[in-house]
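Same chain as my last thread, 212 residues:
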Amino acid sequence: MSKKWYFYSCIALIVAIISSGFKPFEIEKMSWFYVDHAVEGLNYTVPTQEELQYVSLNIPQTGKTFTGFKQALSFKESQGRYNLVNTLGYMGKYQFGVGTLRTLGITDSAAFMNSPHLQEKAFKALLAINKHVLKNEIEKYKGKTINGVKITESGLLAAAHLGGSGSVKKFLKSNGKRALKDGYGTSLKSYIKQFGGYDTSHIVANGKAKVK
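reply #2:
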């Protein structure tokens, strides 16, 4: 009887020692998102509207697709912010001027600023117009290197978005010597280089493109 009592006492002591070495595991909660089980249902804490004004530098890898082109260009223009108006009065995610918007058939600036969908349509419409205006230049210079920069369709379209198709033509005709810049000192050459090699092939050239 004493042996059985000794055996079970030893087991109980071992279990007590092992158990004392462990602490309850607590999941660390993120300050910006968590699930609270203390009340019925699920409660989520998400970023505030002010926090959403800033774009993470960890940009998803979309490669040289058209989505990648839009993403890269919009980040350069506005950090991807639909509601941004810069000090020169250019508006939205892709920084449109009032005159350009009118060319595209948009006369209500407030409606434009409040509609991401409208801004995306305006961007594609402007690409279609610039591709039409620059179709001869794209065919003639694509694949060539001018003033140290390889010429691609997407690079020329990005440069036209920055400074207009006329400025792009002047740059090409001058063999890159007329490196025009915008109001902040950004050159067409830098846009041609930075946004070169993206797939913009599905954009259909249309000199009369409008936003409907």
